[in-house]
Structures are given as structure tokens and as C-alpha cells.
From TrEMBL:
Gene3D superfamilies: Glycerol uptake facilitator protein (1.20.1080.10). It is found in: Membrane. InterPro entries: Aquaporin-like, Aquaporin_transptr, MIP, MIP_CS. It is a multi-pass membrane protein. GO terms for molecular function: channel activity. It comes from the Bacteria. It comes from Rhodophyticola porphyridii. The lineage of its organism: Bacteria, Pseudomonadati, Pseudomonadota, Alphaproteobacteria, Rhodobacterales. This is Aquaporin family protein.
Length: 218
């Protein structure tokens, strides 16, 4: 269990280093071109996801996301106590990853984001983004387990662009990004609704997956 928690911590920390660090770099290199900055942010996030899922998936399952852990809890594939430990580590490591990104770019470590991300379209986008992520993971487990690192990396890279919220799809990421007043940030007051929508999307994916990806009868 200790190795699993360590893997979840390292993976989630590097996920946030990738998300926030690439956002800082992209905004500094393309301050007048949000589209280019978002493209760089999306590609970097997809790349780090592929790496950490490939390397750490065999140890912890590579959740790096309380919504994913919740899905496996609902499916009876992880005990409640282990799920709680995973989620606490994911949140703590996500915050640590943000602080590491700030240090690398000589920014104040402790920040609160001022970036407003709110409104029905963005809330609905988080339902769609999280549903899609869990749909990809659960479908991948049923039909192409070895391809999950690629599937998740490609999905998130694309979802940065086809969702109006830029696909947070992860409560730990949402909490951590509220602590960064940079390109990837989210106003802390906007965070609770995003997380609620992510939970709704995850639950909906689990319910559909029970039918669509059920094992074939014996």
C-alpha cells in the first residue's frame, strides 16, 4: 500500500508540474497568443500523462485523480479506506506539484488564482470532460488495457480544445490549480461547482460502463 500511495503522489505531483509549468512557460513565450499557449499546455499535459501512466500504472493503477478513484470505488475494485488514502495523497501531491512549478519559474510559492472559470457552459463541459475520461479508461480496461496510457493522453490533449472549460476533469487538479495565479489557474470560488460536475460525470460513466463494457456472458 505504501508503494501505491507513493506512486499516486509522484504521479499526481508530476501531472500538476506538467499542467502548471507548461502553462507558465507557454504564457511567457506567447503572451499575446492564447491559442498557441493552450496548444503547448495541452501537448505537455498529454505527454506527461502518457509517461506517468505507463511507468506507475503497474504499481498503483495510475489514478492520479479522485474522480477515477471514486469510479473504482463504485465498481467495488478498491476498498473505501484505500480510496480515501488515494484521494488525500492525490490532493496533497497536486498542491505540492503546483508549488514545485512556481519555484522552477521563480514565482511566489503561495498564490490564489484570479482566473474566473464559471457559467453553465463550463460547468456542463466538466461533466462531459470527466464522463469522457472515465469512459475512455473503463472502455480501455475492457478492450485495450495496454493502450490506456495512449488513450488517456490523446483524450486529454483533445479535450483541452473541445471543451469550453479546457477539461480539468480531476478534483485534485482543480484544487491545486486554484492555488496558482497563472495561465492554468481557477478562481477558488469557482472550484466547488467544477468538482461537483466532475463527480456527476464520473458517476454517469460508471453507470453506462456497467452496461456497455460488461464482460461477455460465460
Amino acid at each position: 500500500m505504501l508503494n501505491k500511495l507513493l506512486a499516486e503522489g509522484i504521479g499526481t505531483a508530476f501531472l500538476l508540474i506538467g499542467v502548471v509549468g507548461s502553462g507558465i512557460m507557454a504564457a511567457s513565450l506567447s503572451p499575446d497568443n492564447t491559442g498557441v499557449a493552450l496548444m503547448a499546455n495541452a501537448i505537455a499535459t498529454g505527454c506527461i500523462l502518457y509517461v506517468i501512466i505507463t511507468l506507475l500504472g503497474p504499481i498503483s493503477g495510475a489514478h492520479f485523480n479522485p474522480a477515477v478513484t471514486l469510479a473504482f470505488l463504485l465498481r467495488g475494485e478498491i476498498p473505501a479506506a484505500h480510496a480515501l488514502a488515494y484521494i488525500l495523497v492525490q490532493i496533497g501531491a497536486g498542491i505540492l506539484g503546483v508549488w514545485i512549478a512556481h519555484l522552477m519559474f521563480e514565482l511566489p510559492v503561495l498564490q490564489l488564482s484570479g482566473t474566473i472559470r464559471s457559467g453553465p457552459s463550463q460547468w456542463f463541459s466538466e461533466v462531459v470532460a470527466t464522463f469522457g475520461l472515465l469512459f475512455v479508461i473503463l472502455g480501455g480496461l475492457r478492450h485495450a488495457a495496454s493502450a490506456i496510457p495512449t488513450l488517456v493522453a490523446l483524450y486529454i490533449t483533445g479535450a483541452y480544445w473541445f471543451t469550453s472549460s479546457t477539461s480539468f476533469a480531476n478534483p485534485a487538479v482543480t484544487i491545486a490549480r486554484a492555488l496558482s495565479d497563472t495561465f492554468a489557474g481557477i478562481l477558488p470560488g469557482n472550484m466547488p461547482v467544477f468538482i461537483a460536475m466532475q463527480v456527476i460525470g464520473a458517476v454517469a460513466a460508471v453507470l453506462l460502463a456497467r452496461r456497455l463494457f460488461a464482460p461477455a456472458p460465460g
